[in-house]
Structures are given as C-alpha cells and as structure tokens.
Design brief:
Oligomer: heterotrimer
Helix content of chain A: over 70%
Radius of gyration of chain C: 25 Å
Mean pLDDT of chain A: 87
Radius of gyration of chain A: 20 Å
Low-confidence stretches of chain A: none
Structural class of chain C: mainly alpha
Shape of chain A: globular
Number of helices of chain A: 12
Mean pLDDT of chain C: 83
Low-confidence stretches of chain C: none
Strand content of chain C: under 5%
Number of domains of chain A: 1
Distance between the termini of chain C: 58 Å
Helix content of chain C: 55-70%
Chains: A mainly alpha (about 260), B alpha/beta (about 325), C mainly alpha (about 300)
Distance between the termini of chain A: 26 Å
Order of helices and strands of chain C: HHHHHHHHHHHHEE
Largest interface: A-C, 36 and 30 residues
CATH topology of the largest domain in chain C: Serine Threonine Protein Phosphatase 5, Tetratricopeptide repeat
Largest sheet of chain A: none
Strand content of chain A: under 5%
CATH architecture of the largest domain in chain C: Alpha Horseshoe
CATH class of the largest domain in chain C: Mainly Alpha
Chain lengths: ~260, ~325, ~300
C-alpha cells in the first residue's frame, strides 16, 4: 500500500519537473542576485534585513503560487483528461491516489524551497561577507514557510477534488490571504456579538493560521523563535493538512467520475 | 467459473442545474460472462456500453444492482490485480515515455520489480511497438496510443481484459493485429470482454455477444444462434446467362456475370428454384446456404426501439 | 459497488478529530504569540512608510492595526503587563492609515494621556494626536472634547481646555455639553462637580466599551472620595460633640448623623477604623481613589476596571 503511494508521489513529482516548474528557480535566482548586488552597492547598514526580508518573502510567494497552480489541477486534470481511468482500474484505492498526489507536490515544493534557500544564503553571504548565529533563525523561518506550503497544497488538493481549476485557484488564493490575517480575524470576531460572533469565530478558527507561520520580520530583526512555537506550529500544520486531506479523500471517494 | 456476473446493474444520472431531470443511462442489466470466452458488447453510440464498463471498473457508482468479477467485489484490490482495462480513446500522461508509463502501471499493478522491465519490453513488442521505449507519449499518433493502451491492459497478465472500442483509431492492418491478439489472449485462457459498434469484428471474434440499445439489453447469445434465428437464405449459382421467369417469381435476387448467374433466395423456396432450373435445363454449379450477417440481425434488434425511445425521457 | 464505508467512516472521524485538534492548538498558539504579534506589527514603525506600502488598502490595514490595539489593551490576554509604550506608535500608525478613525483619538485622550498605571503617561503625544484628528476632521465636535479633556484632566491647563471646548461648541451639531464645559472651565474648573460632569459626558458620548468602563471607574472613585471626605467629617463632628471617637457607624446613626450604614459604589460597606479614618473594604476593586485606602496600601500594577458590558 505505501509502495503505491510512493509510486504515485514520484510520478507526480516527475510530472511537475517535466512541466518545467523548476524553471521558476531561474527567475528567483535572477531576483536574488539583482537584489543582492543592488543592496551591496547602496550599503546603508540594513543589507541583511533587506536580503532576508526579500529572500524569504520571495521563497514564500513563489512557492505558494506554484502550490496553487499545480495543486488545483492535481485531481481535476486527471478527471478531465481521463488519465485517471487506467490508474483506478488497477489495485489502487482512491484515497491512496489522493495521498500520493499530496506527497508528490509537497516533495516538489520542498525541493524547490531547498534550492531557493541556497540562493538566499548565498545572497546573504555576498552582502555581509560572513554568517552570524542569528542566521540560524532563517532556517526556522524557512521551515515555517515549508509548513505553509503543506497546508496550501492540502487545501488546493481538496478544492481540486470537486471544483474546476479556476474556482479552486480563487478559493485557495482567498484562503491564503485570509489566513495571513487569521489572528486579526479572530480579534475581529471577538468584538462582535450574538450570532455574528458565533459565525465569525467559527470562520476565524477554520481558516488556516498563516499568521503564526510568518516569522520573516522577526527573523530579519534577528529575534529568536520560541521552541514552543516551533512545536505548536508543526503540530498545527500536521493536524490542519490532515483535515483538508480527509476532506479530499471523502469527496473523491464518493465522486462519480465522468 | 463465471468471470463476470452482473445482477440488475442500473445507472440513472440526475441532469440539470437543480438535478431534477433524470437520464437513464443503463436499465437494470443482467448478464453473465464465462471464463475463457471472447464476449462482444455491441450497441450504437450512446447505448450504455461505456457506462457499463465504467460501472464494472468502479469509476462510477450504480443507482441499483451489483456485479462481481471473478467472484469478488468491484472495489476489491485483489480483483483489480487480475483485470486489465482499455478505456475509449485513451489519453496518457504525455510527459512520460512509453517505457516509463508502462513501468508506472506495472508498479501500480504489483508487477515484481525484477520482472517489470522485461515485461514492459515484451508487451510493447507484442502490440507492435518495439522501438518506442524512450519516446515521449506526446509524440504518439492515435494508433500508437491505442496500442500502448492495449499494452497497459495486458502488461500484468490479467485473467480478464476489458476493452472499450479497441479497434478505434487503427488502420485495417492494425485492426487485424488486434483481432489476432485477442484470439491469442483467448488461447492463453483469458477472458476478453470488449465493446464495439463495428459488427464485422464481433462476428469474426466473439463466442457470444450482447446487444444493447438505449440503455437496455436486447439480446444475448452465440453469434450463430442469433443469426440463425433469422430465416435463412441460399445462394444458387448456375451456368449460362439466362434467368428463368420462375426465378424472378420466387423473388430471387439475381446477378449475371460473364457466363454464370448468381441468385440469392429464401431457403424455403429452394426446391421450387431447383425445379425451375431443371426444367430449362440449366447446369447448376453450386448451392450453398448464406448465413445472415450479424449486421442484419443487429439492425432488426435496434430499429423497433425508435418507438420505445420516448420512454427514457 | 458503493463508496467504501470503511474509508468514509475513518476519514470522517479523522476529519472531526483534526478539526478539534486544530482549534485547540490555535488557542495555544494565540496565547504564546500575543505579545509577539504586537511587537512584530511595529517593526515598521514609520507611519508614512507603512501607508505607502499598504498599496492603497490603508483602510483595511488601519482596521487590522486597530483591532490588534483594542485586543491588546482591552480585557484580553495580557492583563498585568505594562506595554503601554506601544500604545502611542499604534495609535499614530492607525490614524495615519485612516485619519477618520475617531475612536483612535478617544483612546488617545483616555489611555495615552493619563499617568501610569492608568495610562501611558504621554499627554503631549496625546495632544498632538488629538490636534491631528481635528485637522483631518474639523467638524467632529467630539475630537475637540477629547483635546479639552486632556488639558483638563492630565495637565490642569484650564485655559487651553476652555479654548478647546469653546472651539468645539462652534461646530455644527455639537453636543450642548461643549458650551457648558467651556463655561465651567472659566469658573469652576477645580470643582469635583466639573470633574464628575466630564466623566459622565465621556461615558454617555462614547460607543467604546473600554472607554465606558474607564469612565465608570473614575466616577466611582470620585464618589468614594466624596463619601470618605463627608464621612470623616461626620466622625470628627461626633468626636467634638461626644468627646470620643465613634466605635462604629451605628454610633453615628444613633446620634442621628447617619440614616444607614454607608455603602461604596460597588455595594461594600465602608469600614470605620479605630483612629477615626474611613476605609473602603476592597481597595483593589476601586482604582483611582485618592481617599479611603488603608495605610501603606500599594495599588496593583494594572488598574482593575469594571467588567465591560
């Protein structure tokens, strides 16, 4: 069983790579090099700040975009093109297909983020000529960004299991934006009353909590990240992504394929 | 044992924005297919052939009824390991090469890693594509895709092979090869269940056929039995170029070519025809029965249902 | 031939479990992060830069900042900490992003100006904020009120207070209290009645629960100060008449000086000490009182405001 999931995952990875997804790394590399050189010239004492802010934001945004654009098609494309027929007529269970697709895309994003991280650290070295201990926190920020990818991938897969690519992209992107303000949404909900409060609070807790996963600013200011937060965020991502995947599995299991 | 056992399988789709208009794609279907036979599932386009196959593959859930393949449930992985499926006008991951695709399918079907590359090569040769292991599928023609489709259906040596319109997209040579392949599969003891609307293929290959139209099963049986139920004809060939008047009176369909005449008439008029020729006298060259073609039988089954068409709405 | 019920049940159960888990984890994360969120917010502490970066969505961003401010200083997670130093930049950023967010100026006068621990102790900054508000919203009478309030309450600058109230009274649709207040500044500024009127006005003209709560606390304190003064006055009158201190309030009642046992605004009875002083029973519940506290009493770091209704 797990062998089949791995097979589906590696096939999904292969599809992403051959779809020239990794070419985005070129754009990223150009961006980072340009920024590093520019900042190095100006040299106003905040080079590290700019490089870290820009680099990590770029890693995050590029990855989210890729996650959404590939994720929304993971299931719907296979249904439309009917490549799914020859897969499901084999001893592959529908849920294995979903989980395999998830790991395939997640793996692609992790590999992508890895190469980007190398770029960020290279740019950092270029502008400041040395590494500091506080740079270690950049790795934590990157880890959190990868956790964000896992959540968005699971959500995109969930939408892909029942919705057209266009709608899925809109939903996923909307959830990303709202999730970035999730803490504030909970704050807003706390200020309302009555039935609105129930609905708002419900929505605020349902939305993915990207605010806690975004430590780019604090890391850029060389603030440490609490170990407790790392644990909580990891647990939260596992639980939230599993929830979305369960939803995808349920929907896909009950679908009549066209 | 019964290879495929279909018990009252039924599928109704709810169409329309508010899902109010039901469209019956398949009326309750009862059908058994024995192991080792080549079974043809015939019908015009839109008859419900593909729906039936999708129900058997577990791609679509029935509104009612059930089916068992090799005695096992439809979503049983053990059962799926023993069947192969070629969908209609298949489309494959076009970023993969033929070799990679078949290897992937082999993995999913549980073919042992040691044997996989060998089996992939063998099956590609068997379907007439020996040199395409490293060619990307996006470069394949329709006929080549069809062959790859057949390859992936038989790669893992299944007991039953389900083929939806296997001849589609193939030129006459290709169709001949596929017919030969299906015969070979039968020789190997496999069951072949295929759907088609090309009756000559079915006539040549099948042990038994089922005819389906507008979601309803019209008839099932061996080809010979079905066609013989239609009143037979005989073919009479004689020397000369005269057609006796009596022949025409019998409603014979006569054709003169050179110095022979060929006539086709109903079997019941055989004695009267021989008498007519003997009286001339004309020298008889041959008298043989003409089998009704499956096509004729098919058309008779399908036509009366035009009146029935209103019921499904 | 139907969807696998085993998968359906497993996935459903797991989904519900994960949903519960995610909610619980979120609450934990919120608790851990509460201080952090606010500080992160101020990494870009230049209001103009922030306004430029908001790409035109400054209204929304202002609301976001404002919610964070309210959450932080309202009755939320960090009662007991002293991060009032973040209040000024928060209010400045919020009003730069949205100069028409009137409640922010109210917070300035009620929480930025007052001395620690009741506020951030930055009256000058509060004045600048109020003046910024008036420049951007010249027809909002309440902003003039906020300005006058600061001058009166925190700086004792009755002249400027009178000016502010008078200017505000000229605004069309101004509340009539503005004229009254301007007049009071001229003559009865030091009067406890004026202070009381000020707090009542604040209470009645605000929509914000935190501001209301704060006003109630101050009105209670004024009442206590009045009560204690008059009660202690009765005690010394008794002493002069009877030649000794009363043992309890019943003694005063017996001497026809009191009708019943006196009660503070929260409903607790006052205590008559042996040395003739009057004390409140639960001083922690009555922030801002200047009389009636036990000797050597140290008030808590954060004033305990009455619950927000």
């Amino acid at each position: 069983m797990s062998g089949r999931i791995l097979d589906i995952a590696s096939n999904t990875f292969r599809e992403a790579v051959r779809d020239r997804v990794l070419y985005n790394l070129i754009a990223f590399a150009l961006l980072m090099s340009g920024a590093a050189i520019l900042v190095g010239q100006i040299s106003i004492g905040i080079e590290r700040l700019v490089v870290i802010n820009l680099g990590l934001t770029a890693v995050s945004l590029f990855g989210i975009v890729i996650a959404i654009f590939i994720g929304i098609g993971l299931v719907s494309k296979e249904i439309d093109k009917r490549t799914l027929y020859t897969v499901l007529s084999r001893p592959v269970q529908r849920w294995e297909f979903i989980i395999g697709k998830f790991f395939g895309l997640a793996g692609t994003l992790v590999v992508n983020a890895f190469f980007m991280s190398v770029g960020v650290f290279a740019a950092l070295f270029y502008v400041s000529r040395h590494f500091q201990t506080s740079d270690g926190w950049v790795l934590v920020a990157l880890y959190f960004i990868i956790l964000q990818f896992l959540i968005i991938t699971a959500l995109a897969l969930l939408f892909s299991s029942f919705s057209s690519p266009l709608l899925s992209a809109v939903f996923a992107f909307a959830l990303f934006v709202i999730g970035t303000f999730a803490e504030d949404l909970r704050g807003f909900a706390g200020l309302t009353k009555g039935i609105v409060r129930w609905l708002a609070t419900g929505a605020a807790y349902l939305v993915p909590n990207f605010s806690a996963l975004n430590v780019i600013s604090s890391v850029a200011h060389e603030q440490p990240v609490a170990g407790q937060l790392i644990l909580s965020n990891t647990a939260y991502t596992l639980v939230y992504a599993s929830m979305a995947l369960c939803g995808a599995v349920l929907i896909f299991e009950h679908r009549n394929l066209k | 044992m019964t290879a495929i056992d279909i018990l009252g399988l039924e599928k109704t789709y709810s169409v329309g924005f508010w899902r109010k208009k039901p469209r019956c794609a398949l009326r309750p279907l009862h059908l058994q297919v024995e192991e080792g036979e080549i079974f043809g599932f015939l019908g015009p386009n839109g008859a419900g052939k593909t729906t039936t196959l999708k129900l058997l593959m577990g791609l679509v859930y029935p509104t009612a009824g059930s089916a068992k393949i090799l005695g096992m449930e439809i979503n049983d992985p053990r059962m799926k390991a023993q069947i192969g499926f070629l969908p209609e006008q298949p489309y494959f991951y076009d970023y993969l090469t033929a070799g990679e695709l078949l290897n992937y399918y082999g993995q999913l079907s549980g073919v042992a890693p040691k044997e996989r590359s060998r089996k992939v090569r063998e099956v590609l040769e068997r379907v007439g594509l020996p040199d395409v292991m490293r060619v990307q599928l996006r470069k394949f023609s329709k006929g080549m895709l069809q062959r790859v489709g057949i390859a992936q259906a038989i790669l893992h040596d299944p007991r039953i092979v389900f083929l939806d319109e296997p001849m589609s997209g193939l030129d006459p040579m290709g169709r001949r090869e596929v017919r030969d392949l299906m015969e070979q599969l039968k020789q190997e003891g496999k069951t072949v269940f295929f759907s088609t609307h090309i009756l000559s293929d079915a006539e040549a290959l099948c042990d038994r056929v089922a005819i389906i139209h507008l979601g309803e099963l019209r008839s099932v049986g061996a080809v010979a039995d079905l066609t013989s139920s239609v009143e037979g004809k005989i073919e009479l060939i004689w020397h000369g170029n005269q057609v006796p008047a009596a022949m025409k009176a019998l409603g014979a369909d006569c054709h003169v070519s050179g110095d022979t005449v060929r006539a086709v008439l109903l079997e019941g008029n055989q004695d009267a025809a021989l008498e007519a020729l003997r009286r001339e006298p004309l020298r008889i060259i041959s008298l043989i029965p003409v089998r009704t073609s499956l096509e004729e039988y098919f058309v008779r089954q399908v036509q009366p249902s035009q009146a029935v068409a209103g019921v499904t709405k | 031939m139907s969807p696998s019920w085993r998968i359906t049940i497993t996935a459903s159960v797991l989904l519900v479990a994960c949903l519960t888990g995610s909610v619980l984890l979120l609450r934990g994360i919120d608790r851990e992060r509460s201080a952090a969120t606010l500080e992160e917010v101020l990494y870009i502490s230049s209001p103009t830069l922030l306004k430029r970066m908001s790409l035109g969505y400054d209204g929304l961003l202002a609301d976001v900042y404002w919610t964070r401010a309210v959450q932080y200083f309202g009755d939320k997670l960090i009662r007991g900490s002293e991060h009032f130093d973040l209040l000024a930049p928060l209010l400045e950023i919020t009003t730069t992003l949205d100069p028409h967010l009137l409640v922010a100026y109210e917070y300035g006068s009620n929480f930025l100006a007052p001395k620690i621990p009741g506020g951030a102790g930055q009256p000058q900054r509060a004045i600048k904020l109020a003046e910024f508000g008036i420049r951007n919203n010249p027809n909002q009478w309440h902003l003039y009120y906020d300005l006058g309030f600061i001058y009166y309450m925190e700086l004792g600058d009755y002249a400027n207070a009178e000016q502010a109230f008078a200017d505000g009274a000229k605004v069309p649709n101004a509340h009539q209290v503005m004229r009254i207040m301007a007049a009071k500044m001229a003559e009865h500024a030091g009067n406890i009645q004026t202070a009381r009127l000020m707090w009542v006005t604040t209470y009645q003209t605000t929509l914000d629960p935190n501001v209301k709560s704060n006003a109630v606390a101050h009105l209670n304190a004024l009442q206590v100060d009045e009560d204690v003064t008059s009660l202690e006055g009765l005690v010394s009158h008794y002493c002069e008449t009877m030649g000794h201190l009363p043992q309890s309030f019943s003694d005063l009642a017996a001497a026809n000086m009191l009708r019943s046992v006196p009660v503070d605004p929260l409903g607790h009875t006052y205590k008559l000490m042996p040395d003739g002083r009057v004390e409140v029973r639960v001083p922690d519940d009555l922030p801002f009182i200047e009389k009636g506290t036990p000797i050597g009493y140290i008030p808590p770091r954060m004033p305990k405001l009455p619950p927000v209704k």
